């Protein structure tokens, strides 16, 4: 697998640490979500999630406004970092739901969505993120988002 160096990319007046993060923000825009990059008001133990996202979702046949704290990683993460994120997600769960996005918009696998299974396996000392297939509003926008010409905006 080829490793690329992150290149700061500007989108809508925000300078992201990488083009992949800018593509994620563009995907949120295409989904009709409101987002904030690195929301300092959501800091816990010096950790700041990549995004605060607010979107209207259809839940049980009614439109509901839902907030997510989103951490994006372009490559798979190791177990130690997964445990770190799990602990942060648990501390943030009273503010809003936590989503972990993993993968590159530039490869065939695309970006996968995961949620922490808080409380399910913890009695056994297991901290796990589960593939979250119900966040379908995210999936359909990555392909379109990566076509955006950030250099021309």
Topology:
Elements: E1 9-11, E2 14-16, H1 19-30, E3 34-37, E4 51-59, E5 62-73, H2 79-92, E6 97-102, E7 112-116, E8 129-131, H3 136-139, H4 142-146
Parallel strand pairs: 5-6
Antiparallel strand pairs: 1-2, 3-4, 4-5, 6-7, 7-8
Describe the structure.
The mean pLDDT is 78. It is built from 4 helices and 8 strands; from the N terminus they run E-E-H-E-E-E-H-E-E-E-H-H. It is of the alpha+beta class and 153 residues long. The strands form 2 sheets. It has a 6-stranded mixed beta sheet with strand order 3-4-5-6-7-8. The protein has a two-stranded antiparallel sheet with strand order 1-2.
Summarize the structure.
By secondary structure, the chain is an alpha+beta fold. The protein has helices at residues 19-30, 79-92, 136-139, 142-146; strands spanning 9-11, 14-16, 34-37, 51-59, 62-73, 97-102, 112-116, 129-131. The two termini are 30 Å apart.
């Amino acid at each position: 697998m080829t490793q690329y160096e992150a290149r700061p990319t500007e989108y809508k007046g925000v300078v992201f640490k990488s083009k992949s993060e800018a593509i994620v923000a563009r995907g949120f825009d295409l989904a009709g979500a409101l987002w904030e990059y690195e929301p300092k008001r959501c800091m816990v133990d010096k950790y700041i999630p990549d995004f605060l996202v607010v979107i209207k979702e259809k839940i049980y046949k009614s439109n509901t406004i839902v907030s997510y704290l989103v951490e994006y990683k372009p490559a798979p993460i190791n177990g130690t970092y997964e445990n770190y994120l799990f602990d942060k997600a648990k501390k943030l769960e009273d503010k809003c739901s936590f989503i972990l996005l993993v993968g590159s918009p530039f490869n065939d696998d695309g970006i996968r969505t995961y949620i922490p299974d808080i409380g399910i396996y913890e009695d056994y000392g297991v901290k796990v993120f589960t593939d979250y297939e119900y966040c379908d509003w995210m999936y359909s926008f990555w392909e379109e988002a990566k076509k955006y010409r950030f250099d021309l905006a």
